[in-house]
Amino acid sequence: MIPVPVRDDLQALEGYHSPQVSVSVRLNTNESPEPPPAAWRDAFAAELSRVEWHRYPDRAATELRTAIAALHGVAPEQVFAANGSNEVLQTLLLTYGGHGRRVVTFEPTYQLHGHIARITGTGVVEAERAADFTLDRAEVRRAIATADPIITFLCSPNNPTGMVEPQEAVREVLDLAPALVVVDEAYGQFAPWSALDLVDDDRPLVVTRTYSKTWSMAANRLGYLVGPSWLVAELDKVVLPYHLDAAKQVAGRLALGFADEMEARVKAVVAERERVGAALAGLPVHVWPSGANFILFRPLDRDGHDVWTALLERDVLVRDCSSWPRLGGCLRVTIGTRAEDDAFLAALTEVLG
Ligand code: PMP
To answer: What is the mean pLDDT of residues 135-147?
Structure first.
């Protein structure tokens, strides 16, 4: 049988790969090192037993949106939630992207911004960051002026570099961008400032967040954005009806009742990040400053992929970015528990001799 051809513009598309290997020390996908609090599990189980399973869930996810809005001091109409922040991004692109429209990304950055844009038929203009991976203001001006993007993507802290965009850089992009600016804050809680404070109904800015990192709920697939209510109303028209199942709505709402526990975890991860960063500084690697729950580094005298393989042989899995464009030789390590980080540092020290 001849396979049915996919859309012309998808024929060269590569899938998004992130190996799921069974190892003792898994530090490759920037999850939380700790599961959610036991009290959250109990509360979740109790509420699950009361779900009316024969009925569709609340289509507007009213209680969840209200709880998220309260967390950030905004109106529920300014919150849109979906199955992971990836689906939030996809819904944005389905609504505002499409043929004849373009987005701008500043590379290297989160691969899914360009990937999802392409899937929705949106043109992607990849602008370059400076050699140290900061935003190059002249390039920002040039790219926005020539691409006339419907969406300008920022990511702060940026994945995979870990670097936080300075507030004045985000404000400058907001001034220059002709349409929507999306600040992806999947790692926002680990950083010293958030663009959430800039969200306003009079400004075409959205900030996306996820439950996958801070809230220890990557298995649950839940993310959201905070943005102008007129934008949220448009997304609500595009997203599939009942896209958020009842269990997920309960899980997300209950998690917000554990904000203090989560804040303590964020503090612990940040302290651990500083410890791992200091240890890496003593090894023959280049390290980028991180405001996230991971660190990008490049072995100085060794092939990055060889180091990745040697770590895997020692039962430690990190992210191999060594063949990614602009990231030659780089590896990215997620901050884990103290024991996991010690295992990583010991393995890396041994590998680097
Ligand atoms: N944005 C960034 C920058 C990420 O790194 C990730 C996760 N890798 C996501 C969004 C997607 O997160 P999720 O779909 O799990 O909410």
So the answer is: 97
